[in-house]
Write a structure and sequence with these properties.
Blueprint lengths: L23 E7 L4 E4 L6 E14 L5 E11 H10 L5 E14 L5 E14 L13 E3 L2 E2 L9
Parallel strand pairs: 4-6
Antiparallel strand pairs: 1-3, 1-5, 2-3, 3-4, 5-6, 6-7, 7-8
């Protein structure tokens, strides 16, 4: 297939050879406060929440539609999200798509798609302005405020 690069054309050339890629970047607002739990076996922190992400186009009625996407965050980052995020906060999430199946309480097999976050960045200021330490995290990396820099 010849690649002419026009709108709507599909480029079948993959520069990574036979390697595959599962990477997602989302920006949206929390649809509810994060729920923090710990695994039973090892006590590892895991937080879950959903973000609302507007679609880039309007429907036939001229209204923007919204997707609610489930996010899973692990370890220290999970605890930080649970402590500093709340419904309505704007975040950027980078991670991978995971599709898994489970059996619900009634024994019915369910399938769920969720994003397992490798990084979460807080994009707006805290609504409670008593503490300014809120910006970005990716694992154990945090943004530094100008007041924290000695020069």
């Amino acid at each position: 297939m010849k690649d002419e690069g026009g709108p709507g054309d599909i480029n079948l050339f993959i520069p990574w050879g036979d390697k595959m890629l599962n990477r997602i970047i989302l920006i949206g607002r929390l649809a509810q406060d994060p729920e923090l739990r710990y695994t039973q076996t090892e006590g590892v922190a895991v937080a879950t929440f959903s973000i609302a992400v507007e679609r880039p186009f309007s429907n036939q009625k001229g209204e923007k539609e919204v997707d609610f996407i489930r996010i899973v965050v692990w370890r220290k980052q999970a605890e930080t999200c649970a402590n500093y995020l709340s419904k309505g906060r704007m975040v950027a999430v980078e991670g991978r798509l995971q599709v898994r199946s489970y059996e619900d309480r009634d024994g019915i097999k369910r399938t769920i798609a969720e994003v397992v976050a490798s990084g979460v960045t807080f994009l707006d200021g805290r609504k409670d302005t008593t503490n300014d330490r809120d910006r970005s995290l990716s694992g154990d990396n945090f943004d530094v405020h100008d007041d924290d820099v000695p020069f």
